[in-house]
Amino acid sequence: MTLKASKNRWRADKLSSLGSSIFQEVAGWKAEAAAGGLELIDLGIGSPDRGPSSEIRRVLSEAVLKEDSYSYPSSEGGLAFRSKAAAWMKYRFGVEVDPETEMLTLMGSQDGLAHLALAVCNPGDVAIVPDPGYPIYSGALAIAGVTPWPLPLKAENGFLPDLSSIPEEVLERAAFILLNFPGNPVSVRADYAFFEQLIGFARRWNLLVVHDLAYSEMGFDGYRPISILQVPGAREAAVEFHSFSKSFNMAGCRIGFLAGNADAIGALRSLKGNIDYGVFEPVQEAAIAALEQAMGADAGEGVGPLYERRRDAFIGALRGEGWDVPKPAATMFVWAPLPAAAAAGGLDSRRFARELLLETGVAVIPGDAFGAEGRGFVRIALVEEEERLAEAARRIGRFLRAKGLAE
């Protein structure tokens, strides 16, 4: 009997393409910094530091006490949740979607992002993804055997993609194009005219547009992010992800939804029907309460103003310390170009992030974790209160001066 080769046994090669290695690496740096006695200020992962409203928590706590809450939920999500989500889409964006055929409940938007390519592509297809972009965009393609084509987002273009730069041979093979506005890690915003152009472009090339709108409630300076489904004809050519993690501080609840093209929705529904049994019913009830609150008289200010205040305080403090970082237009992230002197001093984004953490205890994510176009940047998450962000800025300032990087 011939023995199997032991190299890489029980670990698929495709796992090396998932893009999560840098986050594990940063976790190791954090452990090293903590072991050295540093108090950490973790501005790496975009996990909200506040919980949902007391009303949402009350609904959740009451629902989990019901004995009949513990049967299998449906994979597609309850009609009550999908109907409420459709009502919120109408309220928030003026968009009509059919909760029966044009909406699917997800265990957080990452669930859908991770599985969509498996549902709508065949191995060997191409998908166009942003560079820099959230790691699961490309990681999901590796799982599905789909080839990514990175679409550069460059500062000189205002970080908007140049659709005309995509080669025809790529467009002929591509199944979908994925974008997110406002984005992660780049918080650029797109206007209605761009979405019109994108839908027209996609219909011309028979592409599905996948729009990740996880940060729909985090616009600043009077800007309110818009839905691509507001464009006429978009429901025939696009799907859009929505998340409760950032909009309602419900990250641990794992709930979101996908809305738009019925064929793509149906494909993902079929796949998920063979994978999972859906979102815990009490979590769906809590999400319904979140949407009702957002549409009600007691909606409050929402999460946007909180992160806008944090942005203003942090950016102002950084500038005072000698690092002139552009203000993000939305989201919970700062996409910060390294100081001009960093390259001359041999500091790329990874070395900058590592040395910053080990010397100050402030954790940020190197930009190359999000693609080749992220080199020379770091992503900073505004997930601490203003006082802690001010302390982080002071530590960063000391680091910059010690390295001769203050501007």
UniProtKB/TrEMBL annotation:
This is Aminotransferase. PROSITE patterns: AA_TRANSFER_CLASS_1 (PS00105). The keyword Isomerase does not apply. Belongs to the class-I pyridoxal-phosphate-dependent aminotransferase family. Keywords: Aminotransferase, Transferase. One of its GO terms (molecular function) is pyridoxal phosphate binding. InterPro entries: Aminotransferase_I/II_large, LL-DAP_aminotransferase, NHTrfase_class1_PyrdxlP-BS, PyrdxlP-dep_Trfase, PyrdxlP-dep_Trfase_major, PyrdxlP-dep_Trfase_small. It is an enzyme of class 2 (transferase). Its EC number is 2.6.1.-. It comes from Paenibacillus durus ATCC 35681. Pfam families: Aminotran_1_2 (PF00155). Its cofactor is pyridoxal 5'-phosphate. The keyword Lyase does not apply. Residues 40-396 form the Aminotransferase class I/classII large domain.
